[in-house]
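User: Okay, second chain of the day. Same drill as before: sequence in, structure tokens out.
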Amino acid sequence: TSIIPSRRWEASRDGAEDYHLLMMLKRKIAEYRLGDGAHQAMADQAEKEMNRIVQGITEKVKKIKEISREFIPYDIDFSLFVEGREKLIRMMEEMSR
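Assistant: Same drill. Structure tokens below.
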């Protein structure tokens, strides 16, 4: 028997991974804030970029304000998430060197 993942399960897993990435980056930023001036400047830059990415994604994702039994067309541009993840991962890698 093979398991076939649903779109909902994949989205749930992606969300958990995104949360984990953001928490790792926040911890790394906090760690850099304890360092010298160069590390503190990098922490400020990383936090600003992280917030910009998250805000840019959340502003463009359509928000449903109520639960409805009617079908509501809901399209998400997944490239927003992919590009955002790639940028966050690059920041994490830079700060982990």
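Residues 7-33 form the longest helix (27 residues).

User: Thanks, on to the next one.
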